[in-house]
Amino acid sequence: MLLRKGSRCLVLFAYVMAASVEVFAQQAKEFRITANEFSFKPSSIQVPRGEVKISVTNRGKFLHGLAIVGRDEKIGYIESGETESLTVNFDKAGEAIFYCPQPGHRNKGMEGKLTVGR
Ligand SMILES: [Cu+2]
User: Fold this and answer.
1) Where are the domains of the chain?
2) Which three-class secondary structure state does DSSP give residue 31?
3) 30 CA to middle of ligand 1, Å?
4) DSSP strand pairing (50-58 vs 64-68)
5) Mapping DSSP to helix (H, G, I), strand (E, B) and coil, where does residue 26 land?
């Protein structure tokens, strides 16, 4: 296939971008949580400071999600059987509560504790 100079440049750019995204993703430590009716497992996780990837698998029948008190980033909902990830940058040590943002789920017990190490 013949490509004009401009489009070859774009293809190269796309490759470089894909490679950078890959490196970026590998740097974040990943933590896995499962969601069900109506709890998270584990309900307490310890993460290091810095970039952390939290992957949530919905093992329930309802929609579930993940939100962290005091943070804007969240996963609004995850379909049953699916996994979604959230990358968060924790810049200081401390504790935070994570919960399911689906209406009523937090009150039914879908919350847990996230401890950020020093
Ligand atoms: Cu839920």
Assistant:
1) 28-116
2) strand
3) 21
4) unpaired
5) helix
Q: Which CATH class is domain 28-116?
A: mainly beta
Reading the block at residue 20, the tokens are 């950078």
**Three-state DSSP class for residue 100:** coil
User: Is residue 63 a contact partner of residue 77, using CB atoms and an 8 Å limit?
Assistant: yes
pLDDT digits (tens, 9 = 90+) for 75-106: 999 999 999 999 999 999 999 999 999 999 99
pTM of the complete model beyond 0.90: no
Whole-number Å distance, alpha carbon 4 to ligand 1 midpoint, is 50
- Check if the beta carbon of residue 24 is closer than 8 Å to that of residue 50: no
C-alpha to C-alpha distances, 90 to 46, 109, 111, nearest whole angstrom: 12, 24, 19
Between the CA of 92 and the centroid of ligand 1 the distance, in Å, is: 27
Distance 72 CA to ligand 1 centre (A): 18
CB under 5 Å of ion ligand 1: residues: 64, 100, 102, 105, 110
